[in-house]
Amino acid sequence: MHVSSEQRLDGDVRERAFTLDGIPGFLWTPAAASPSAPVPLILLGHPNLGLDRMYPRLVGRALHAAADGFATATIELPGSGARPRLPALDRARAELRRVMQAGEPVTDDIIDAVVLPLVEQAVPEWRSALDAVLALPEIGGKVGYSGGVIAIGVRLALVEPRIAAAGLFAGSFVPRVTVEEARRVTVPLHVLLQWDDEGNDRQAALDLFDAFGSEEKSLHANMGGHTGVPAYAGDAAARFFTRHLK
Is the pLDDT of residue 232 over 90? Predict the structure, then answer.
């Protein structure tokens, strides 16, 4: 992990921009983090809109987590931001846009083509980033995953034993295989759903929640569209991670 820049936010939160095997990312740590008192880590998932565009929202989440005593980290998703484009994925997204604009049904094959290549490449990259961040002496203990794309979060929660709890945003399309994988997920889950999300199939989100095999899982539904998540929703997620990672 090569650190390319560093700064302090709000006076005491340390932000490090890094690259790992050519993949950009950020790491935020609270002032209390030290080799003698390592802090737990939350991986910040996000939609594939590019880190530059997502940065203000990610920083807000990171500062909130730091106030609760957590380090946070994120990486650029495949085909996003400054990373090389993925032509097959771009074609699948273009077909998805065409179908939605035409008012045609979004088929399972289209969803699979848009989401699964991203999952297959992104999940190993997230695990490599987790290796690199946990090698730092000031970070240790349990790990959480928070955010979207939900299919990435489901796969990580299934295959990565270091993830002890996950907060997922039901705001993206759900491939068929993701529902099957959800049946084998057992970590505690906090799932956020926008009830009137214009780009999300509500029933698919409810079916996915029902499929999760976790003994502890909670669904937090709020009225409003995709970008209308209320500010107080973050407080409930913070309590969830404090309960399970500390």
Answer: no
